[in-house]
TrEMBL record:
Swiss-Prot/TrEMBL GO biological process terms: cellulose catabolic process
Main location: secreted
Documented EC number(s): 1.14.99.56
Source organism superkingdom: Eukaryota
Function noted in UniProt: Lytic polysaccharide monooxygenase (LMPO) that depolymerizes crystalline and amorphous polysaccharides via the oxidation of scissile alpha- or beta-(1-4)-glycosidic bonds, yielding C1 and/or C4 oxidation products. Catalysis by LPMOs requires the reduction of the active-site copper from Cu(II) to Cu(I) by a reducing agent and H(2)O(2) or O(2) as a cosubstrate.
Domain Auxiliary Activity family 9 catalytic: 17-201
Keywords associated with the record: Carbohydrate metabolism, Cellulose degradation, Disulfide bond, Polysaccharide degradation, Secreted, Signal
Listed name of the protein: AA9 family lytic polysaccharide monooxygenase
CDD domains the record matches: LPMO_AA9
UniProt-recorded Gene Ontology molecular function terms: cellulase activity; cellulose binding
Organism ancestry: Eukaryota, Fungi, Dikarya, Basidiomycota, Agaricomycotina
Length: 212
């Protein structure tokens, strides 16, 4: 309980002093569609929850299937909440694609810890994930997401999209979701009060992780 009080105090202090945003993949800012500012998206039904603002990125990062990547932050996660990384294969050039349609699959997630209650991404400065070895080669959008749950009933979505070109791989066809549409506005995983009562179980919202 003492740890939760410290985390809550830190979260309130940080909320007054700004937010954060995903800015780079493996240190490369030119492959990330930079948000207009560090404010969160607050409507899970908005198209902005997909990639944030309608920014463009000039470069595409080439990586081999099975590679480990880190979607980096300009700060550390100081709002309590889950995180996830999604991917979507572009039909042609990823630089001009908006990621619309039922095209997204989850490749990593960070949920809750208990006794004391917190989240696995708390205080991290980025999300490290593995590009699934079995997906097909091609250009992909990579979407990083952290959901701040520090205000009960008013989740804050911190999201950015990056652009990669996957080489190698296989022929796997993961189950897919649309964004928006992947999380309901009334999903208990984003509407709960994480302070009172303190949760004893938690499910990361969205689809299950594809680990192929």
């Amino acid at each position: 309980m003492k740890l939760l009080t410290v985390i809550l105090s830190a979260g309130l202090f940080s909320a007054v002093n700004g937010h954060y945003t995903f800015t780079n993949i493996n240190g490369n800012r030119n492959v990330v569609r930079q948000p207009a500012n560090n404010s969160p998206v607050t409507d899970v039904t908005s198209t902005q929850v997909r990639c944030n603002s309608n920014a463009q990125a000039s470069d595409v990062l080439t990586v081999a299937a099975g590679s480990s990547l880190t979607f980096g932050l300009d700060n550390t996660f100081y709002h309590l909440g889950p995180a996830a990384v999604y991917m979507a294969k572009a039909p042609s050039s990823v630089t001009s694609w908006d990621g619309s349609g039922t095209v997204w699959f989850k490749v990593a997630e960070w949920g809750a810890t208990f006794n004391p209650f917190s989240f696995k991404d708390y205080n991290l400065s980025g999300l490290q994930f593995t590009v699934p070895r079995s997906i097909s080669a091609g250009q992909y959008l990579v979407r990083a997401e952290q959901i701040g749950l520090h205000v009960a009933g008013a989740p804050q979505f911190y999201v950015s999209c990056g652009q990669i070109n996957v080489t190698g791989g296989g022929s796997a066809n993961p189950s897919k979701v649309a964004i928006p549409g992947y999380i309901s506005k009334s999903d208990p995983s984003i509407t709960l009060n994480i302070y009172n009562p303190v949760p004893t179980a938690y499910r990361v919202p969205g689809p299950s992780v594809f680990s192929g």
